[in-house]
Amino acid sequence: MLLAIEQGNTNTLFAVHDGADWIAQWRTATESSRTADEYAVWLTQLLSMRGLELGALDSCIISSVVPQSIFNLRNLSRRYLNVEPLVIGENVELGIPVRIAKPSEAGADRLVNAVGAHLAYPGDLIVIDSGTATTFDVVAADGAFEGGIIAPGVNLSLQALHEAAAMLPRIAIQRPPTVIGKDTVTNMQSGVFWGYIALIEGLVARIKAEWGKPMTVIGTGGVVSLFEGATDSIDRFDPDLTIRGLLEIRRRNPHIGRT
Which annotated residues bind ATP (predicted)? Predict the structure, then answer.
């Protein structure tokens, strides 16, 4: 069975694939100082709740945008799974061209998303992934990662408002009842929610105009699902895009990291 680890700046996803289906998924807060032993204790407990054990995992793939965490995640695989993990950006072949000035600068998550999107959708694509940052990635019809846009994420914007303005409270992002807010909270909610809708619609329109060909827009990530039904600029919402990409990359590298 495969252990897929997808680590963002805020959360880390651990998912188990049995060769046919994803049978378990868990999220934990990203902490760069967490050791391999701490991960193993946490993961062992969760696996046992599903009737599984670490010894059943015979393959591991890691995608991380937190370089200081990779050492501990790699040791988790080596020490407790007894396998050398595949690490995006280090020892794997993606199977897609990376057409940017410095391919080494492309985030692991963005490359994995490009693989997952091209696998599921034909033609030229825009992949919007909203987490700590909101990224807009252009994926060509041949699967190539062509670059894109990085903007602050929704929760980062809310945090900045709260921390920089003494009178503004910490709030949760949600769709307000009206665009024009009637109190401080709905003013903030409207600014962030409809502001990000405008961001998405404006940037998608500019990308399509510059690209010059029809494009399908895919939304992924936990935050972007909040915008479903609020804009026509996103054609499909696909929460499994990243783990689909990780599974495909694992299949494209069959001789690395097996027991």
Answer: 6-13, 132
State the Cα–Cα distance between residues 251 and 245, nearest whole angstrom.
10
232 is in an annotated binding site: no
Residue 30 structural domain: 2-87
Say how far apart CA 203 and CA 209 lie, in whole Å.
10
Residues 46, 143, single domain; the answer is no
pTM of the model: 0.88
Active site residue 109: yes
- What pLDDT digit, counting tens, does each position of 220-241 carry? 987 888 888 899 999 999 989 9
Q: Which of 18, 21, 58, 109 is catalytic?
A: 109
Q: What does the pLDDT look like over 187-217, one tens digit per residue?
A: 988 998 999 999 999 999 999 999 999 999 9
Last residue of a domain, one of 87, 116, 146: 87
Is residue 69 domain-shared with residue 107, that is, in the same domain?
A: no
Find the CATH number of the domain harbouring 59. Answer: 3.30.420.40
